[in-house]
TrEMBL record:
UniProt domain Dynamin N-terminal: residue ranges: 49-207
Source species: Desulfofundulus salinus
Highest taxon in the source lineage: Bacteria
Protein name listed in UniProt: Dynamin N-terminal domain-containing protein
Coiled coil: 304-331, 543-570
Amino acid sequence: MLEHFREQKTLLSNAVEQLITLAEAGENRFAVDLLTESLARVASETFTLVVMGEFKRGKSTLINALVGARILPTAIVPLTAIPTFIRYGMEPQATVVFLDGRAEKVPVGDIVRYVTEKENPRNVKKVREVEVIYPAPFLAEGIILVDTPGVGSAYTHNTEAAYGYLPRADAALFVISVDAPLGKGELDYLRDVRHHVHKLIFVLNKIDIVSPDDLAEALDFTRRMLQEQLQTQDILLVPLSARLALEGKEQNDAERLKTSRMTELENLINDLIRCQKGALIISATASRALRILNELELGLELWRRGMEDSLEELERKIAAFETELAHLEQEREDSIYLLYREVDKLAARVAEDMETFERRVFPQLAGQLEDFIEDNYPRHSVKETAGLAQDYIKKIILGVLEKQREREKEIMQQEFARVAGRFFRRIEDIVDRLMAASAEIFQVEVHKTAYKDYILGDRYFYFHFYEHPTFIPAFEELTVASLLPKALLKKHILTKTRASLAELLNRNCGRVRADLVESLKEKVRQVAGELRLRSDAVAFSLKNALQKALKEKKASVAEQEKSRAKCEEEKQKLFILRQNLEGLLKLENN
């Protein structure tokens, strides 16, 4: 099966490389870039496997067992606090990526300082994620393992981090423990997971701690519960012992490894990658290539038919083509205008969300601030209390704003993807109509395809938000009227600090809102450029073919014959490429 998949990848890569050469000859820059990106994706195919579940189900131990080494730390208390990516590489190494974008290389053994709750409580070190490179055979086929924080522990920030990585998963291992029946928290998490992950494999871990009869009962209960919750009979449930599997690999103990039943899971994952991920990437790339091939074929046919027409007839058809093109270009600009209006609505939503958030959170923060002053004023001087209050205000505002910003980013990401996808498809419809109009004017055949969704994929849907981590300070420090009576001083501090809290919260909410809106509008400008480039590339390719025919109509008979021979040669190349690409699609769809 693996050899068959590699043969398909080779055939597809060769076809795409030939298409790139033809697109370059036709000066279709968009097609060249798109196909080059597709070729790179085929060559570096990866499969992201996210390991998730409630805390203390053995997720980190399971990943260590799959890798065959104790890379990730394990302990009795809730441990993993930071998502950790593990991918294949010849030399073991680790990179810590911080929230501000900085990256720091560290020894693999040092990642415990960044990914655990003990060494990095509540992520005080501001780590976004950790990436580990390791020469594990299991990872060699392009698998990327992701260890997520466990949900359901006392650390709510871990739960939020775990949810944040759901959209990245090609598949997920949902780890359940044989000694802890499925609870409400796990089932709630599972209902969220299934909306993001297309393929779920359930792992019933720690089977070494129960008898065969108890294991059979646990398997039956777990399967029935999952079928009921997911409303499907198609449940992939693998019982295993991650601990025994890791020990078996470390000690080269075949019997222990067999008892762990880890091989069943590894075979299932490998089959999933080769049968489903491989099929998906080949199908998507072949479909994208076929759509580009349709455009190249049409340009070739216009060139050939143009050389057959009289000069007068060709000029008349070119004029008709230009008229139709002008109409469609105007429709494209109308669509882009509507795209900007949609994004304006998203920006307004950000502003409204942040205003609502500010109104909702201020009373909560004000209460915390009052408690803080009540606790500190008896033990510190007025001036010291005022200074401590300023630091405390900064701390509590940053705490709530960071979470709110992440929530808004996720919402805007999803909404922008939806809007951008709709307008990409609208532009593809315009491209289809331009090709159909050209074919009708010149009375040539054009291949029609439904592969519009593959032409751009999702490469422009994810974008980086501007983030300014610097806290906007108050315009002035708190003033202290030390001559006031003690009771009035306390009231004065409360009044001043509350006013400072309101000002700082408002200013920093404004900063977050401005950053999000700025990022959103910058991205829509990029998308608008891509929409224009997409239709312009096809229009230019067709116009170029017509201008070439017009020029060659005025050339010598010998030159015309030479052009016709070249046209037939390219037509034959495209015919063979079409057969290969359609053959790949047929295989993948069967």
